[in-house]
Amino acid sequence: MTSYPNRDRLVIFDADGTTIDAFHAVEQSFLRHGMAIGDLERFQKRRKMFKYLGGLREFPNNLRRQFGKQRRKLLLATLTEFYREEARLYPGIAGLLQALLAAPHVRVGLVTRNVTMEPEETLNRLFGRHGIDMAAFDHFACIPLGEDKTFQFRRARERLGINPARCYACGDEYGDYAAAIRAAMYPFIVAYGAEDRLRLRESFGVPDEFIHSSPGEFAGRLLHALDLAVDGAPDEVRPPSGVSTPCDRAVPPVPS
Q: So where does this one cross the membrane (predicted)?
């Protein structure tokens, strides 16, 4: 029988598309180089490898303007600068993070595939503009694009000695959902980032109960699951009327 040294709970966040409005950052960076990414609705429906190439309308121009190492380097520099100086957290997310970081017995982590230059410095500056000190996070990992997050999820909970049943992983893609389940953690998946509710549910089989349509719904349900009071919290982090979080519901296996 495995025993755990504490009764802490762990919440691990994805950065882009879950806490940070990455679509807006990419959209604006593209525009500054004469490119377009299309609207959010079409962006969310694209297959992963095509998301940042645009749709049929945008693809030819984007491909031409991204062709060549120097042009890609300039685009990356623009994206990095935008993240550091202008990118924003979704409404209510700063308050949510501050509440969790201040809560006793709640540990907070961030696992990200952020693609900017020196991503840790980028995120330090972005979160710092919103009053979030990344040094207060209990776990941080920036992993390569395409790398599965399961290892980092497990590493965080094992290092902190936390019961998997008291761990939550929050993301905006099917891969985040699958990694959470493989790491024996409860998934909170948002539908306002890289993938919409229909794609998550119909294409990947993510149960509807794990999907949250807005930052407010997501924040409210997470606070509810952690037994943290939301009285007096801003409207954007209050759970919708009548919402109950299925915390004690068994998580189904990852669809093959």
A: none
